[in-house]
């Protein structure tokens, strides 16, 4: 951290505490200070057997602290971050310390103003989402100005201008946007009493970046717009959004000038004991960033959620999770939750819960234009046959979970998953081809006595491709509300290379009290891919001790 940043940080802290003390002595509107702290420290052991990369520092540490002051309609805060150095799997450009997030905001009547850093999202995020996902190494916070306005009840407007965070600096592009939403039922008391509820909205976003490319004539202003709606009527729901982006040549699409677009539609029905949702998505050339040359998860403006279930069981969640393909995909998903009612023949005393989920994602149906290197080419790249599914399967997931409370002490869950996973497309691993895998899970918990419980989880993944079959066994003991201990082992017994038929044991111990949590673990972690909402990062293999502490006040 520079001396200037350090001085600014402590000046801010002093000002907040001084303001707080002054407000406590001066009236009824007392200011409040709160925040949170987290540190993760990992010591790495050499382990060539699992392919763990060498760590010269031996100990890596990532920490942050938020301090927030609030008094009435005014809020100010700052976040201190320290990566010395970043954990394996996170971009090393985060190494260092600093205060990359600081802001002040106030709300007066129908106007709100934020200056400094902020996070924001328009609609589903297809053309703009600024957010933090620490586990993915993502923080594309805006630094600039945001204004919100409610001219009348039911109409909500917001505008932004600024630059996105890039590690401890900023990206080169300027982002500008406006979003509006109208809640039809809030416009008039008579409309508010209707059973049907309707909200409509729209957004426009533009990013500016100077054209300094010696080869191409690149657009310096690239705009995108989107429209959306949410409709509710009794037990039925419908929501959708369409987005369009003008030509945006960038490193992701090989600098073609084809416009991009995306559409999402979701239908739902729910009543007591039953919930059904159906959704579909089309994405075409929608990688939208404030820097046309950025890669990985850096400086992303668009958020394109995956149309697949976010699994929690380890083998299903970390070996073959799906990551959205912004340059083109079409997908569908269906989810059915059904509970057989209590005290019925099939439901038993406590009822039985079924959760069925299906998702399938294909390539787009594309028709390539002549070579984009042709001097007479318009560099459009390809033509898309919209609403026509391509032949290549990217991903398929069929899964069923059954949850049953047997009695006051016993509870069990059984789950099965069938995967088709195109590694070459999803993970960019040329020559790996497609994996066909089956996963079964049995999860049983037993309450020994009040506050004491044991949970045992067994998983098995069968496949003839990639690394072959896996088995996982986990045992967890909880002494509520403070203590827990867990032991897990993963065994890659089906690997075709005998030297890679390895165990990955790990033990974890944790203590929680109030706003504080301490967790200590030791063991091996296999290499894999970690995804949240269709956004992924690679996780390298490791062997060592990890200590994490979180605290809030």
Q: What are the SSEs and their pairings?
A:
Blueprint: H1 3-26, E1 32-44, E2 59-71, E3 74-83, E4 96-108, E5 111-118, E6 120-121, E7 129-130, E8 132-133, E9 138-139, E10 142-149, E11 155-166, E12 169-170, E13 174-183, H2 189-192, E14 196-208, E15 221-233, E16 236-245, E17 260-271, E18 274-284, H3 314-318, E19 329-340, E20 352-368, E21 382-405, E22 410-422, H4 423-426, E23 434-449, E24 452-463, E25 470-479, E26 483-491, E27 503-513, E28 516-525, E29 528-532, E30 535-539, E31 542-552
Antiparallel strand pairs: 1-2, 1-31, 2-3, 3-4, 4-5, 5-10, 6-7, 8-9, 10-11, 11-12, 11-13, 13-14, 14-15, 15-16, 16-17, 17-18, 18-19, 19-20, 20-21, 21-22, 22-23, 23-24, 24-25, 25-26, 26-27, 27-28, 28-31, 29-30
Give a summary of the structure in a few sentences.
With 553 residues, the chain is mainly β. It has helices spanning 3-26, 189-192, 314-318, 423-426, and strands at 32-44, 59-71, 74-83, 96-108, 111-118, 120-121, 129-130, 132-133, 138-139, 142-149, 155-166, 169-170, 174-183, 196-208, 221-233, 236-245, 260-271, 274-284, 329-340, 352-368, 382-405, 410-422, 434-449, 452-463, 470-479, 483-491, 503-513, 516-525, 528-532, 535-539, 542-552. The chain has four helices and 31 strands.
């Amino acid at each position: 951290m520079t001396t200037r940043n350090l001085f600014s940080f402590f000046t801010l802290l002093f000002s907040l505490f001084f303001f707080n003390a002054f407000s406590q002595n001066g009236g009824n509107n007392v200011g409040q200070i709160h925040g949170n702290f987290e540190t993760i420290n990992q010591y790495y052991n050499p382990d060539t057997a699992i392919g763990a990369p060498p760590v010269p520092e031996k100990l890596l540490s990532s920490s942050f602290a938020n301090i927030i002051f609030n008094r009435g309609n005014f809020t100010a805060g700052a976040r201190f971050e320290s990566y010395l150095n970043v954990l394996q799997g996170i971009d090393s450009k985060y190494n260092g310390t600093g205060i990359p997030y600081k802001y002040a905001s106030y709300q007066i009547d129908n106007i709100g103003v934020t200056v400094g850093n902020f996070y924001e999202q328009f609609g589903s995020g297809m053309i703009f989402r600024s957010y933090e996902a620490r586990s993915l190494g993502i923080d594309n916070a805006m630094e600039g100005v945001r204004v919100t306005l409610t001219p009348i009840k039911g109409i909500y407007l917001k505008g932004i201008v600024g630059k996105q965070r890039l590690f401890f600096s900023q990206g080169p592009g300027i982002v500008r946007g406006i979003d509006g939403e109208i809640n039809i039922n809030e416009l008039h008391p008579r409309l508010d009493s209707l059973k049907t509820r309707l909200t409509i909205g729209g957004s426009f976003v533009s990013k500016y970046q100077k054209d300094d490319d010696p080869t191409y004539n690149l657009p310096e202003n690239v705009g995108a717009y989107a429209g959306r709606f949410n409709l509710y009527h009794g037990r039925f729901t419908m929501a959708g959004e369409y987005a369009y982006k003008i030509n945006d040549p960038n490193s992701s699409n090989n600098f073609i000038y084809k416009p991009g677009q995306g559409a999402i539609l979701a239908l739902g029905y729910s009543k007591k004991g039953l919930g059904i949702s159906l959704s579909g998505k089309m994405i075409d050339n929608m990688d939208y960033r404030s820097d046309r040359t950025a890669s990985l998860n850096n400086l992303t403006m668009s958020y394109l959620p995956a149309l697949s279930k976010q699994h929690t069981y380890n083998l299903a969640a970390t070996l073959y999770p799906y990551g959205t393909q912004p340059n083109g995909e079409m997908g569908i998903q269906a989810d059915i939750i059904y509970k057989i009612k209590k005290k019925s023949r099939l439901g038993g005393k406590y009822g039985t819960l079924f959760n069925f989920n299906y998702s399938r994602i294909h390539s787009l149906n594309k028709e390539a234009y002549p070579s984009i290197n042709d001097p007479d080419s318009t560099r459009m790249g390809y033509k898309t046959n919209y609403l026509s599914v391509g032949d290549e399967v990217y991903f398929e997931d069929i899964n069923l979970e059954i949850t049953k409370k047997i009695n006051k002490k016993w509870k069990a869950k059984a789950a099965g998953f069938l995967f088709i996973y195109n590694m070459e497309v999803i993970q960019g691993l040329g020559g790996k081809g497609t994996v066909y895998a089956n996963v079964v899970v049995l999860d049983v918990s037993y309450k020994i006595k009040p506050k004491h419980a044991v949970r045992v989880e067994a998983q098995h993944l069968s496949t003839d491709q990639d690394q072959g079959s896996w088995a996982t066994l986990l045992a967890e003991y909880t002494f509520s509300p403070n203590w827990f201990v867990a032991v897990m082992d993963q065994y890659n017994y089906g690997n075709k290379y005998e030297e890679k038929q390895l165990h990955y044991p790990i033990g974890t111990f944790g203590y929680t009290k109030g706003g504080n949590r301490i967790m200590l673990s030791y063991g091996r972690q296999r290499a894999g891919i970690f995804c949240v909402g269709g956004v992924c990062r690679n996780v390298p293999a490791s062997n060592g001790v990890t200590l994490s502490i979180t605290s809030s006040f």
